[in-house]
């Protein structure tokens, strides 16, 4: 398939407000990326741009706003955790989204030198492999060193608001799972 050259392809002007609204129609989970800063302070930032990249090797991707301290700190070789929030952790999402709340119950734990938040739905302890600039964000591809899943219902972000699943499904449908996971039937 041939793509038009940059000179041939002139998209209509895309307004950031309208684009954000359109992006909002894609429901995502809500995570907090946690790390230890150079000064020893434990920090985190709320992220909804998190995805699996590869099972072999185990890789994930997070996208951080360039203006965040996390984007300024995390480099190839940096250790961090991705904390997947459950539906009862809306206060943590807001706290780490730049709206500090003294009443938010932030309970830090440290595992092998990597800070994470207690009580999340799942955790991925990662080492950054590649960092790429992309517009107003930084994309980090990281190797998953270890993970743990509690299986709690997730916190969802949809159309600018936090939502929850009323009835999470116990197992994916086999036809969907085989398409997503291919030759890994143990995953479905």
Write up what this structure looks like:
The protein has 188 residues and is mainly β. It has one domain: Roll (Pnp Oxidase, Chain A), CATH 2.30.110. It has four helices and twelve strands; from the N terminus they run αβββββαβαββββββα. The protein has helices spanning 16-23, 69-73, 90-95, 174-181; strands spanning 28-29, 31-36, 42-47, 50-54, 59-65, 79-84, 108-111, 114-117, 122-134, 137-149, 155-158, 161-164.
Keywords:
188 residues, mainly beta, Pnp Oxidase, Chain A, three-stranded antiparallel beta sheet, 39% strand, Flavin_Rdtase-like_dom, riboflavin reductase (NADPH) activity, FMN binding, Flavin reductase, Split_barrel_FMN-bd
Task: Give a concise summary.
The chain is mainly beta and 188 residues long.
CATH superfamily: Electron Transport, Fmn-binding Protein, Chain A
Biggest pleated-sheet summary: 7 strands, antiparallel
Order of the strands making up the biggest sheet: 3-2-6-9-10-5-4
Unreliable spans are none
How does CATH name the architecture?
Roll
**Could you state the order of secondary-structure elements as H and E?**
HEEEEEHEHEEEEEEH
Helix content: 10-25%
How would you sum up the global shape?
globular
> Beta-strand level of the residues, as a percent range?
35-45%
**What is the CATH top level name?**
Mainly Beta
Write the CATH fold name.
Pnp Oxidase, Chain A
Cα end-to-end separation = 33 Å
Helix-strand category: mainly beta
* Count of DSSP-assigned helices: 4
- Rg calc: 18 Å
Q: Work out the number of β strands.
A: 12
Mean pLDDT value: 85
Pfam families: Flavin_Reduct
Domain Flavin reductase like: 23-164
Keywords: Oxidoreductase
GO molecular function: FMN binding; riboflavin reductase (NADPH) activity
């Amino acid at each position: 398939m041939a793509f038009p050259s940059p000179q041939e392809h002139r998209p209509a002007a895309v307004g950031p407000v309208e684009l954000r609204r359109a992006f909002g129609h894609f429901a995502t989970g809500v995570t907090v990326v946690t790390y230890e800063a150079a000064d020893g302070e434990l920090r985190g930032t709320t992220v909804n741009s998190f995805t699996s990249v590869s099972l072999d090797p185990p890789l994930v991707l997070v996208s951080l706003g360039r203006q965040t301290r996390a984007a300024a700190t995390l480099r190839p070789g940096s250790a961090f955790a991705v904390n997947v929030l459950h539906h009862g952790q809306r206060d943590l999402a807001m706290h780490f989204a730049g709206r500090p709340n003294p009443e938010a119950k932030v309970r830090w734990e440290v595992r092998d030198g990597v800070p994470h938040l207690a009580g999340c739905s799942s955790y991925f302890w990662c080492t950054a492999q590649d960092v790429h600039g992309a517009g107003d964000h930084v994309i980090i591809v990281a190797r998953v060193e270890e993970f743990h899943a509690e299986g709690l219902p997730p916190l969802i972000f949809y159309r600018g608001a936090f939502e929850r699943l009323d009835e999470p499904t116990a197992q994916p449908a086999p036809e969907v799972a085989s398409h997503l996971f291919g030759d890994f039937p143990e995953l479905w």
